[in-house]
Amino acid sequence: MTTAAPPHDTVLELRSVRFVRGGRALLDDISFSVRPDEHWALIGPNGAGKSTILSLCGAVQHPTSGEVWVLGEQLGRVELQALRRSIGHVNPRHPLTSGLSILDVVLTGLTGTVERVPRWVPSGSERDRAQATIALLGLSGKTDEPWTTLSQGERGRTLIARALMTDPRLLLLDEPSTGLDVAAREQLLDTLDEVRAAHPGLASVLVTHHLEELPTTTTHALLLADGRITASGPAAEVLTTAAVSACFDHPIAIDRAEGRWHARSGRAPR
């Protein structure tokens, strides 16, 4: 049976998605949609299924059942390589091991490769765009620095610049604060806020375990436990003491100050 496509302004939509691997359901009955200028956070315990959802959003895997619509195209009825070029995917476990410069790493966002493509020469406008994107990410003074000498925070910002090179409508961030110290984390979160301000209409989905790692521009949140949604909607309505405690099956007190969320144990001291 043919089903209707989502509204034209919908960037991403999952409908009753189920994902089974090795006879085990990793996701069950997952439904939510993302529109332009919405910035979603996927939050839940380890093994909840957050990264699996992100792999579906990035057209990396197909659902076992249900529908996944990305940028107006339904997975299973579209050429995936072409679709992936319209999605910015930031993975802190980027497999690059050579000493490419920041500029060259960012330019690989145009080719969708880990290394520079042999004999491929970017145009002057492409190089100018890469330089401007690097500057937006606060790395303009380090354009020629090799990947192998970059700090974890610098690598994270480089990968965001790389993901923005195709002017994507959807940006996916898989635990972008992984391995960062407090200063580097705060710098990265400020940068994400600046990127979102500089790219109106961009939609994003960010996976994290920690509420402290959410940028102030977060608009929506989805709480996930055991492969099922426990709460979903505007962030201020979802990221509450009651909802987060239920998701993690532990009393967690949630506070919000100056646009940032903070979590602490809600258990009364002995």
CATH superfamily of the domain at 12-86 and 168-265: P-loop containing nucleotide triphosphate hydrolases
| Order of strands in the sheet with most strands | 6-7-8-3-9-10
Helix content: 25-40%
Name of the CATH class of the domain at 12-86 and 168-265: Alpha Beta
Q: Could you please describe the fold and organization of this structure?
A:
This protein has a domain at 12-86 and 168-265: P-loop containing nucleotide triphosphate hydrolases (Rossmann fold, 3-Layer(aba) Sandwich). The chain has 8 helices and 12 strands. By secondary structure, the protein is of the alpha/beta class. Helix 3 (102-111) runs parallel beside helix 5, helix 4 packs across helix 5 and helix 5 (152-164) runs parallel beside helix 6. The protein has helices at residues 50-57, 80-84, 102-111, 124-136, 152-164, 182-198, 235-238, 241-248; strands spanning 12-21, 24-34, 39-43, 65-70, 73-74, 87-90, 170-174, 203-208, 220-225, 228-234, 252-257, 260-265.
